[in-house]
Amino acid sequence: MKQKKNIIKKFPIKIKSNGEWFYQNELIQKKALIKLFSSVLVADSKGNFYLETPAEKGKIEVEDAPFIITDFNVKVVNKKQEIMFKTNVDEEIILSKKNPIFYKKNTIPYIVIKKNINAKLERSVYYQLINKFSNKNTKNKLKIKSKGCEFTLK
Q1: Segment 57-112, tens digit of pLDDT
Q2: How far apart are the first and last CA of the chain?
Q3: How far apart are CA 64 and CA 20, in angstroms?
Q4: CA 9, chain centre distance (Å)
Q5: Pairing between strand 8-15 and 49-52?
Q6: Distance (Å, rounded) from C-alpha 120 to C-alpha 18?
Q7: What is the DSSP letter of 12?
Q8: Which of 13, 123, 147, 151 is the most exposed place for a label (fewest CB within 10 A)?
Q9: Residues 124 and 68: beta-carbon distance below 8 Å
Q10: What architecture is the 8-62 domain classified under in CATH?
């Protein structure tokens, strides 16, 4: 039996650069619905975003990153520091080799969430991160460690 080719539709969903989700230009207010949509969000290497289920796949518009980092906490696990970030959909990501911090336009920090999907650090979270680790500053470069990896904050 031949499988049907997955037809890609265009869904009227947009994620603004501030992390707000819209359906037909109306703000989606139910966080549970946003979480449901985000659980089926995928992206390709060209920067296109889709909501994909076994039944259908639809392209959506994303202005910047689909998620925003809204909080973080630091803990020690097996004598190694871990920095855990929380997104606007309550997903938790540990800063690591698999989920590094990187910069766009040399100033805007992002965390890799999963393949081709990133989260932008909210400005206030970034400043809190800098403030927390500023006493470990060396040669004007702020370095942080998580899961045995070192990252530079700009």
Answers
A1: 999 999 999 999 999 999 998 898 999 999 999 999 999 999 999 998 878 899 99
A2: 55
A3: 11
A4: 24
A5: unpaired
A6: 9
A7: E
A8: 123
A9: no
A10: Roll (3.10)
Beta strands at 117-121 and 67-77: parallel, antiparallel or unpaired? parallel
The CA distance from 97 to 141, in Å, is: 19
Residue 146, strand partner residues: 149
Domain boundaries, the chain: 8-62, 67-153
Q: How many other CB atoms are found less than 10 A from the CB of residue 52?
A: 15
> What's the length of the chain?
154
Residue type, 40: V
Cα 76 from chain centroid?
23
Q: For residue 6, what pLDDT is reported?
A: 62
Residue 20 backbone dihedrals phi, psi, to 5 degrees: -80, 140
Task: Kindly report, residue by residue over 130-139, the tens digit of the pLDDT.
Answer: 888 876 555 6
pTM above 0.70, yes or no: yes
